[in-house]
Amino acid sequence: MTEIEIRQMTREDIPAICKADNDETTAFVNYLNGQLDFQDNRECAALLALCDGKVAGYVFLFYECRWGALKNQGLPGICDLVVFEPYRRKRIASRLMDSAEALARRVNTKIYLEVCLNAEYGPAQRFYALRGYVPDGAGVYYEDRVLPKDEACKNDDELTLCLVKEL
Question: Which stretches of 3-158 are assigned E, i.e. beta strand?
Answer without folding.
Answer: 4-8, 44-51, 54-62, 77-83, 110-116, 134-142, 145-146
